[in-house]
Specification:
This protein has 267 residues and is an alpha+beta fold. The protein has 4 domains: 31 residues; 55 residues, Electron transport complex subunit B, putative Fe-S cluster (3-methyladenine DNA Glycosylase II, Chain A, domain 3); 93 residues, Alpha-Beta Plaits (2-Layer Sandwich), CATH 3.30.70.20; 73 residues, Alpha-Beta Plaits (2-Layer Sandwich). 34% of the residues lie in helices and 12% in strands. It contains 10 helices and 8 strands. 36% of the residues are buried.
C-alpha cells in the first residue's frame, strides 16, 4: 500500500470521526435533559428508603414534587421533622409542623380471644385468604388473619405477628403506611405517635355476633360515647372510633368499656 493510500484512508477516517462527533454533540444538545439543581439538593436530604409512604414513586418522585411545589417540605414520613427542616432550608421556607405517625392494628382478636370456625388450609398470606370462601379460619372475617402480609411489606422490621395478630413496634415504625396498604381488612391505620387511647376492634357486627366470634370485640353499646366530655369518641356503625385530635387522654371511655377493647396504647 502506497503512502498516498495511507494518507487517504487516514483522511477519510478522520473526516468520519469529525462528522460523527459533530452529530453526537448536536444530538446531545437537542435531547439533553435539563437538571434541576433544587431537585438534586432536595433528593440528597431524603433517606432513600423509596417506601412510597409519601404517595410518590420513591424519593426521586417526591424530590421532584417538592421542587415543583406539588408536595410540602414535610411530606417524607420516614425522615420526619429533621428531614423537613433540611428540605425547608434548601427551599428557603419555614418548616411546617411535622407530627410523627405510627401504624396501629385495630384488632385484639389473638389466639386467646378470637374463635375459629374452621381449620384453614391454604396459602399463608392474608390477601390470599381474603379472597377464598370463609376468608380464613377466624369467625370474625374483619379481624387480623395473622398470616403476616403486613410483616412482609414492612421495610423497617416494625411489625410482627404475636399470638395470632399483628403487633406494631412504635419505636421502629416510621409511619410509611405500607402495612396499612397491604392489609386486606383495612385493620391497620396511621395514628399520632402520642395517641393515648385506641379502639382495638374493626368489626361492624352487632353485639351478639361479635361475642360469638371474639371475646375482645366492640359490641356497639355506646357506653364510651356517653362518657366522653370532649366529643372525641363516636360510633362508626357498630364500632367505636376515637378522634385523636379531640382526645384528652382522660381514660373515662376505657373505664366504662365492658369489652375492654378501648385501651391505653402502652397496654
Amino acid at each position: 500500500m502506497g503512502i498516498l493510500s495511507i494518507l487517504l484512508t487516514a483522511a477519510v477516517v478522520g473526516a468520519v470521526g469529525i462528522i460523527v462527533g459533530f452529530l453526537l454533540v448536536t444530538a446531545g444538545e437537542k435531547f439533553k435533559i435539563e437538571t434541576d439543581e433544587k431537585v438534586i439538593a432536595i433528593r440528597a436530604q431524603l433517606p432513600g428508603n423509596n417506601c412510597g409512604g409519601c404517595g410518590y414513586p420513591g424519593c426521586d418522585g417526591l424530590a421532584a414534587a417538592i421542587a415543583k411545589g406539588e408536595a410540602p417540605a414535610n411530606a417524607c414520613p420516614v425522615g420526619g421533622a429533621p428531614v423537613a427542616e433540611k428540605i425547608s432550608a434548601v427551599l428557603g421556607v419555614e418548616a411546617g409542623e411535622t407530627k410523627k405517625m405510627v401504624a396501629f392494628v385495630r384488632c385484639a382478636g389473638d389466639c386467646d380471644t378470637a374463635l375459629d370456625k374452621c381449620n384453614y388450609v391454604g396459602i399463608r398470606d392474608c390477601r390470599a385468604a381474603a379472597v377464598v370462601p370463609g376468608r380464613g379460619a377466624k369467625h370474625c372475617v374483619k379481624g387480623c388473619k395473622g398470616f403476616g402480609s403486613c410483616v412482609t411489606a414492612c421495610q423497617f422490621d416494625a411489625i410482627h405477628v404475636v399470638n395470632g395478630i399483628a403487633v406494631v413496634d412504635p419505636e421502629k415504625c416510621v409511619g410509611c403506611g405500607k402495612c396499612a396498604a397491604t392489609c386486606p381488612n383495612g385493620l391497620i391505620v396511621l395514628i399520632p405517635a402520642d395517641a393515648k387511647y385506641v379502639v382495638r376492634c374493626n368489626s361492624q357486627d352487632k353485639g351478639k355476633a361479635v361475642k360469638e366470634a371474639c371475646a375482645a370485640g366492640c359490641i356497639g353499646c355506646t357506653a364510651c360515647t356517653r362518657q366522653c366530655e370532649f366529643g372525641a369518641i363516636t360510633m362508626n356503625g357498630n364500632v367505636a372510633v376515637i378522634d385523636q385530635e379531640k382526645c384528652q387522654g382522660c381514660g373515662k371511655c376505657a373505664e366504662k368499656c365492658p369489652s375492654q377493647i378501648i385501651r391505653r396504647r402502652s397496654s
